[in-house]
Amino acid sequence: MPTYPFRQLDVFSDTPLRGNALAVVHAADGLDEARMATFAHWTQLAETAFLLAPSTAAADYRVRIFSSEREMAFAGHPTLGSCHAWLEAGGRPRGEEIVQECGIGLVRIRHAGPRLAFAAPPLLRQGPLDEAVLARVRAGLGLEDVEIRHAAWVDNGPGWLALMLPDREDVLALQPDYARLAGLRVGVVAPWPGGEADFEVRAFLPGDAVPEDPVTGSLNAGVAQWLIAADLAPSRYVAAQGTVLGRRGRVHVEAVGDDLWIGGDCGTCITGEVVL
Fold this sequence. Notes:
The protein is an alpha+beta fold. The protein has helices spanning 33-43, 76-88, 131-141, 168-172, 217-229; strands spanning 3-11, 20-25, 48-52, 61-66, 71-72, 98-102, 105-112, 115-119, 125-127, 150-155, 160-164, 185-191, 199-204, 212-213, 236-241, 249-256, 259-264, 266-275.
């Protein structure tokens, strides 16, 4: 069977093994979708990415992203991790920015000092939650209505909705009932005044092999678009995520003109070959 260059990375942390792990298979054009899905299920990571030649001259590379259960049109930590792996393997962008092709189209990526950052894609669904969905989320998280300050759809591909709670300790204390949340992807955020970051975030994915994501770029992108537009957050901030899982994720958010950049540190933990 053929072998493919392989990397496993840590994304959204400057401390090795404290961010979100990502498997990346290089030069994967010879793999069919079924094989990609099987390998992604086998890794049991939040996501696995497959690098391919772009199908358009506007892109530097193409990526297909799979969770353990399904292919995803877009996800944040695979976007930064795939870019890091592509650059580390010798990839050279055509312009000042790197352009990734994925299921939602073209995503711009830049070097932001020591880290990478992607331009947040537009929200596919936004606005308030209907009462039936909000009731399911309250029940699944064990919350009373008065404990939820704000709630909205923040979907940029994976299907995220998000809640804002009063403070960080409320977020960290959550013990979700995943059966009641089945079929939803739920993010929760709260301010962290005077802390190491400006906000604390958690991401719940019922039914996935990893039901709580350690650090989530797509969720943070959607949450940032929502919070900044609603004047609930400044145009530049840092979000912490993964705390209850023993991680130290840090997502760097910065609005510049019409762009919202979502950045984080990436590091390679494993290199080698995978037999597929």
